[in-house]
Amino acid sequence: MSGHRAGPHFLQIPGPSNVPGRILRAIERPTIDHRGPEFQALAKEVLEKVKPVFKTKNPVIIFPSSGTGAWEAALVNTMSPGDTVLMYETGQFSTLWSELATRIGLKPEVITGDWRHGVDAAAIEDRLSKDKEHRIRAVCVVHNETSTGVTSRIAEVRKAIDAAGHPALFMVDTISGLASADFRHDEWGIDVTVTGSQKGLMLPPGLGFNALSPKAIEASKSAKMTRSYWDWASQLGQNPSGNFPYTPATNLLYGLKEACDMLMEEGLDNVFARHERHAEATRRAVRAWGLEIQCLEPKEYSPVLTGVVMPDGHDADAVRKVILEKFDMSLGAGLGKVKGRMFRIGHLGDFNDLMLAGTLAGCEMGLRIAGVPIKPGGVQAAMDYLSGNA
Amino acid sequence: MSGHRAGPHFLQIPGPSNVPGRILRAIERPTIDHRGPEFQALAKEVLEKVKPVFKTKNPVIIFPSSGTGAWEAALVNTMSPGDTVLMYETGQFSTLWSELATRIGLKPEVITGDWRHGVDAAAIEDRLSKDKEHRIRAVCVVHNETSTGVTSRIAEVRKAIDAAGHPALFMVDTISGLASADFRHDEWGIDVTVTGSQKGLMLPPGLGFNALSPKAIEASKSAKMTRSYWDWASQLGQNPSGNFPYTPATNLLYGLKEACDMLMEEGLDNVFARHERHAEATRRAVRAWGLEIQCLEPKEYSPVLTGVVMPDGHDADAVRKVILEKFDMSLGAGLGKVKGRMFRIGHLGDFNDLMLAGTLAGCEMGLRIAGVPIKPGGVQAAMDYLSGNA
Amino acid sequence: MSGHRAGPHFLQIPGPSNVPGRILRAIERPTIDHRGPEFQALAKEVLEKVKPVFKTKNPVIIFPSSGTGAWEAALVNTMSPGDTVLMYETGQFSTLWSELATRIGLKPEVITGDWRHGVDAAAIEDRLSKDKEHRIRAVCVVHNETSTGVTSRIAEVRKAIDAAGHPALFMVDTISGLASADFRHDEWGIDVTVTGSQKGLMLPPGLGFNALSPKAIEASKSAKMTRSYWDWASQLGQNPSGNFPYTPATNLLYGLKEACDMLMEEGLDNVFARHERHAEATRRAVRAWGLEIQCLEPKEYSPVLTGVVMPDGHDADAVRKVILEKFDMSLGAGLGKVKGRMFRIGHLGDFNDLMLAGTLAGCEMGLRIAGVPIKPGGVQAAMDYLSGNA
Amino acid sequence: MSGHRAGPHFLQIPGPSNVPGRILRAIERPTIDHRGPEFQALAKEVLEKVKPVFKTKNPVIIFPSSGTGAWEAALVNTMSPGDTVLMYETGQFSTLWSELATRIGLKPEVITGDWRHGVDAAAIEDRLSKDKEHRIRAVCVVHNETSTGVTSRIAEVRKAIDAAGHPALFMVDTISGLASADFRHDEWGIDVTVTGSQKGLMLPPGLGFNALSPKAIEASKSAKMTRSYWDWASQLGQNPSGNFPYTPATNLLYGLKEACDMLMEEGLDNVFARHERHAEATRRAVRAWGLEIQCLEPKEYSPVLTGVVMPDGHDADAVRKVILEKFDMSLGAGLGKVKGRMFRIGHLGDFNDLMLAGTLAGCEMGLRIAGVPIKPGGVQAAMDYLSGNA
Fold it and tell me: SS3 for A10?
């Protein structure tokens, strides 16, 4: 095999997404003194610029970490050892979050799901209503379940918590949702939003985020889990002066500033509309192929990625291998209990119509080469939609 | 208009081609002393590495210039004022070359063509046979006519010159052909090959090249046109020690080294096969749309670009405008006498199947949006071919 | 204030160090699928290439984190709640590490120091000898104390532990020492080495490291502190296949590979000798100015940075401000209890003689402009040494 | 020899100068369609932004070429075969320009100089006064003679031409002067200014420039030298719409826009003052070493570079070799008739005080190591001046 493949790789996993050159060039700038005035000005600017991306006026904490670290941070800052947290199984990532909770000494109570629907707000309300003693300290759900392509209706979960009159904190993982799918930290009454840099924010991985609410901050003051690296108070104390309690990931912060600028230049609503449009085009392609979409509820279709279910007897990972080798495109594997039974097409981040057409063409050709019995016409269906000829 | 468009621009003009990141990063290295040992080692390496790309063992001259400069260099080094050169009108670029010859004091004799065929070797032979006095000092043809998508059969032109027993120098412009279409400087008995950096070599524009033959070098010794910047002798004198007679375009030479490495890693034959494959897929798309290909001779189809003829009453430039605005893709305009009557799809340089699918999708959707009466199915036809299902 | 300052900024804090262009360009490459074969090959390569930098054959764990995170990781993987750890106060960073230990529920016992000497191995031996019940579970020291410019003799601490016959784990922070100062994880019998990316490794901040010993791994199996993000077992389980338990900081790993290559190309011994030479030149400059060096023990002079003590009545931060404004150079502040009383000159990482000369010139000129009563001749003294004329 | 040298190379030849990262990152952007609207907007912007750098309101032509090409362009656009041009020998580059003139069929008449002074305006006036028939068609002088470090007083040459009442065109090479030394195309009545990208403009080499006057444009209409690549008329016809007659060096134009922005952000007067200051500091160092400055006339000291004369019996190239090997710094060689007898220190372009200190330290140490009998104290003298303690 030669060391060189012509043309760009298509990174169509549901994150990390394709990092635009403008951000890569920002990241490439020389590292500066993280205690000097130039950095402090940058930090203050970034900490403000990131807020509208979350649609919040409250503080956003930025960690040098993966998104997984931001999950841990959300819990250790607000909970005490042995606390019960209510979680909802939407797929692999909600499952990982509950495993993490267990590891660090919490008691997650998980409402099981079928991995093909989003969070059932009624089930949440029902469970909370029964928790008369308010032993449940937090409700933790995933906004956009990366493993399945299902986007839960977060506003309804908020309503459910309110309807139950329950004081639990509300925590939402929007690691793969933020900046691709509509998200409203303040309006939806979220106490802790968890996300990472490598999806809708279009950055390489390496930054984890917690957006807070006053209630979450208040809770952190009495929460008894030990914490140091993830401690919000140290961050909240230093951030206003453009400082961080330990060395931040300076170069990724250069990129974050650029990413925020790009999102605002395009307009968040335009960003969301672009992703909805690409998701719809993708689903039309999948249906034209005669394949099933993993998400069963149209109101919960993800604008970020689409899970494609394999016909019985066909291995999704074999298809992905063909597509990687023949067409230099990476797709997402089925994870956990759906391994081999589905693959995931990422259409998030810095993405446009012709990239989508190339992506779907790679899927259509790869499926055929792999011997999966599909009907042609998927790309055509997507183009008909994209060009207003559907 | 916002300052940011999501996703990459599709630069599908027939050059400059999409510059791969690996080359851009090479070019971004700090400039060094062009008289120091590090540069001299680089220069010697590059001057050797570029030879196999031309399939030559003879010297290759590199100018800081556009390809147009390399045309001028070819003529002023070998001709004397008032000399007759035989040229063949394959399209806009062969026409520009003959205009240049006139400007600098030569007498081009042009065999007219219809812009839909390549060089007629028999016509060359016929003309040379009649030139008993050998007043024609050079035969100048374009290998890959960028304005039409017609690739002339250079080996046959060589045979024609030989059959006529004529001593004229043989000069070939392969500005858009080299490193995408098969080209053999030595085997085809070419005396001066003219090219530029921004097509198959995958670099930004800024370098012009002349590959020489011993006969061309000999001719340059008695040629009487004045020359300084373009003078081969100064280059040939300095290049063996890794020097240039004036400051070279250092950073583009960094990129050229990288480009040569990439071409050799992939293998030139693989590069040519890749382009032939993409050209065939493109033609299948064009035919499926019910449109005509500018090139009328299958043996002369260009692997570099495809000229697409508009139906009467439809303006190619209006289509290009729609595609640029809606799909962020640049296509080539019809030039000169075919302005508005055709557009050109570049499929050269650092390019792969999914980029091609995106490119063709942009054309198909744009043609429909622009109201051109095409049949859908072009992308499908291309995919059928690319995936072995044709 | 204009937006542009001519020439490069001199980043002469003791880390982050000046990131070389070669590493920045590596980091700028597009992010790839962290679950795909290309990444897995990269990860395996990097995980091996980093070992000789620590002089270890044991596993090295890489976290997306700051160096502070790597401290926390070292403790939570090996300790149980309430465990006693013996620490030695060499300066601000050893102090921060003990505060971190307290925060996460350990009981640090700190041997106080004067911030002008390194670890007193005899004091360690004395204390361990008295710990007959082996309640001390770990000895934690800082190799190169970044706040003072004192490099402790780690081999002697190892000997002290052995002499006391004590089974405590031996943990060493070499965040600012690794790859600039000689460091030998295996030979010195270190159980956990803690470091970060932004000093001798010449990367931007964002990676934390733990080098392990078999004894540390064994201890981690019974250690009872809760952990998830920092959990070694998850890393050790996945790393052999080129995977990480959560999304790694892909682009910094590109840079890490390049950094390891650069260190090996130069040769670690040459790297250390270069730093020793620059440190000696710096100290000669400081002495020529008539100023005091913070480190009082010649055997403990840091090759990484030099702490310069201000004469009474002169504020180090005012000097630093002058130097930043007039000469665009960042120097390190005095931290904690020496704030304002000293500044720190970083001479670590990707650094050479002429950068050092510029650095010392900036200090000498800035000190004079700030009105500090120094003698000129510091740069001269450094040059005399560097050029072999001392 | 290892492949890696620590720290940045000091590129202190008098051009190419150190290219700032901001410009390198601009150049690294993907190449775009040079016939599309985005490029046209860029071209129009650049063609305007470059004018104030020349202090002109007249057109500036930009060629993909070296500065040598811009010399040729100046002559072939304005002269007719056999024309006489008056030139003044200030050093190697003025000599090369006269050789070029001869090569292309002009008759240069050269007023000889001693390479240690600038243009003698009185000699020009004297010669022109005698040319009653106005056979001299142009006066061609070098503003900043790169080979010697002598900056001619261009305004006085203009006065001399006027005093002689002579109609010759006035052409000035400011290849190494522009954007480092004060230069005023319009005010000084220059007809053609010749420059390149790789000096004060801080770009890599690859762009040549001609700034014009109405008189020069008028002259070009009747000038009879053949020209095509260098033809102004083609450029002047296309530039107003943001086009060029052939493919421009797109990526260098990205850099040129950035360079113009940087110069305007700093302010041209500040740029000039910075260079004057560094030149004075350099001369003080040279004098402190006890060495001679090549330029003998204080009014003509170059702010761009300083030529340092070797004591008898010492070879400047041997010193340069020592400095390159020991200190990774490139200095300029003595050229032509002063080869080996002097070296040149470039202090142009993107340069600051600490870079200068490092540069002078490299010279001082290298001179001593090479055994040149100098007095120490050069860097000290420079620092004294730079810090206001002289």
Answer: strand
Query: Which residues of D are less than 8 Å from B11 in CB distance?
Result: 30-33
Bond from prior residue into D204 cis (ω within 30 degrees of 0): no
Residue B2 clears pLDDT 60, i.e. is over it: no
CA closest to D22 among chain A residues: A29
Question: Residue C362: pLDDT above 50?
Answer: yes
C326's enclosing H/E stretch is: helix C316-327
pLDDT, residue C40, reads 98
**D390 Cβ contact list (under 8 Å, min separation 6):** D284, D381, D384
CATH code assigned at C186: 3.40.640.10
**Do the domain assignments include residue A67?**
yes
Task: Give the residue from B264, B299, B320 where a domain finishes.
Answer: B264
Domain span at residue A216 reads 21-264
For residue D187 the two structure tokens come to 């005010």
Please check the confidence at residue C2 and state whether its pLDDT lies above 90: no
DSSP for residue B78: T
Residue D2 has pLDDT above 60, yes or no: no
pLDDT tens figures, A264-303 = 999 999 999 999 999 999 999 999 999 999 999 999 999 9
Ligand-binding site membership of C368 (annotated) = no
Residue B197 counted as domain residue: yes
Say if CB C96 and CB C128 are below 8 A apart. no
Distance CA D138, CA D78 (A): 9
B28, two tokens: 């971004």
Percentage of residues in chain C having pLDDT higher than 90: 98
CATH number of the domain bearing residue D286: 3.90.1150.10
Cα atoms in the 13 Å half-sphere on the side-chain side of B1: 5
Question: H helices of chain D, where?
Answer: 21-27, 37-49, 51-54, 67-78, 92-103, 121-130, 154-163, 214-222, 232-238, 250-266, 268-289, 316-327, 353-369, 378-386
Polymer length in residues for chain B: 390
Classify residue B347 by burial, with Cβ atoms within 10 Å: 0-12, 13-18, 19+.
buried
- Together in a domain, A295 and A230: no
Residue A4 within any structural domain of the chain: no
Mean pLDDT value of segment B141-170: 98
Last residue of a domain, one of B246, B264, B282: B264
Whole-complex ipTM: 0.97
Write the Ramachandran bin of D178: left for phi over 0, alpha for psi from -120 to 50, otherwise beta: beta
User: Is the model's pTM score more than 0.95?
Assistant: yes
Q: Are residues A186 and A61 in the same domain?
A: yes
Distance from CA of B329 to the nearest CA of D (A): 10
Smallest CA-to-CA distance from B255 within B26, B16, B21 is with: B26
| Residue B242 burial (10 A CB sphere; 0-12, 13-18, 19+) | buried
**Chains sharing 3 or more CB pairs under 8 A with chain D:** A, B, C
A254 and A361 in a single domain? The answer is no
**CB-CB contact of D295 with D301 (8 Å):** yes
Q: Report the chain A residue with the minimal C-alpha distance to residue D29.
A: A21
Chain C hits for B29, Cβ within 8 Å: 21, 25
- Average pLDDT value for chain C: 97
Same domain, C282 and C206: no
Q: In D, which residues are within 8 Å of A30 by CB distance? A: 21
In the sheet with C10-12, reading across from the earlier edge strand, the strands are: C10-12, C329-333, C342-346, C305-309, C292-293
> Does B295 lie in the same domain as B219?
no
For the record, the structure tokens of A377 come out as: 């016409």
Dump pLDDT digits (tens) for C246-272: 999 999 999 999 999 999 999 999 999
Beta partners for residue A10, in sequence order: A329
- Per-residue tokens: B133: 């006095």
Whether D187 is covered by a domain: the verdict is yes
**D290 with D364, same domain?**
yes
Give me the number of domains chain D comprises: 2
